[in-house]
Amino acid sequence: MTDAADDAEEPVLAGPARRPGLVYFLGYGILAPIARLVFRPHITGRDNIPKTGRVILASNHLSFVDSLVIPLTAPRPVQFLAKHTYFTGKGIKGHLSRTFFTSIGAVGVERGAGQAAQEALDAGRRILEADNAFAIYPEGTRSIDGRLYKGRTGVAWLALTTGAVVVPVGLIGTQDIQPVGSNVPKVAKVTVKFGTPIDVSVHGTADSGKARRLATDEIMAAIHALTGQELAGKYNESPPAGALHKIADRVFPRERL
Q1: How many whole angstroms separate alpha carbon 63 and alpha carbon 19?
Q2: Apex CA 227: angle with CA 125 and CA 70, to 5°?
Q3: pTM of the entire structure?
Q4: Domain Phospholipid/glycerol acyltransferase: where (predicted)?
Q5: 218, 203 Cβ separation under 8 angstroms
Q6: Please, where are the H alpha helices in 74-164?
Q7: 157-184 tens-digit pLDDT
Q8: Residues 155, 136: Cα–Cα separation, whole Å
């Protein structure tokens, strides 16, 4: 899931997910050739992504631009979750933001703990149940130090609940396009590796905590094999926004993206 989510009503969460529409394909047709021409990414394993059906692209997360790189290098439309305020702005700026994020396959949600986390998972489930491709970052948030953090089991819950195949994705060098604190993208060498599809159903069912943990660990091991990142051995924690969120996390633990 992309970084951030603020408070506001999000209409996208109601009803079934729809396939990417005209704006997506127009945006993809314009942005993809330009991005490939400027950044010349090295891409491997595109044939590992099924052309149809439910598929989760589970990737490491190094930069905000990861959510641009994956859709622009994948061989089929890819949707992902983004901060819902990108879609609710007013005026020309709001229209441009909404059009841009729609064009790259983003679906607006509120991200956070407790109920917000479950709603985000449900939004991802609806995307998959519409036989779409869905990109997710099992680490939850960007790795500031470049290490690969422990995966959260939301990715396994989605795969086991929907029957989607999981394609591990290894991104290398995207942090150099837009370093932390920088607002201006830079031209940098980027490698995108799409790994061998994983069928996590061998681990059990979605209602088994052990199955979700084993499936997530298998996915993260595959991502690590693609990137070679140093393993952090712990979660990449973003502290809850306030006391109520902390209490909700403890009393009502849920799967998280």
Answers
A1: 26
A2: 45
A3: 0.80
A4: 55-174
A5: yes
A6: 91-103, 115-129, 154-162
A7: 999 999 999 999 999 999 998 776 777 7
A8: 7
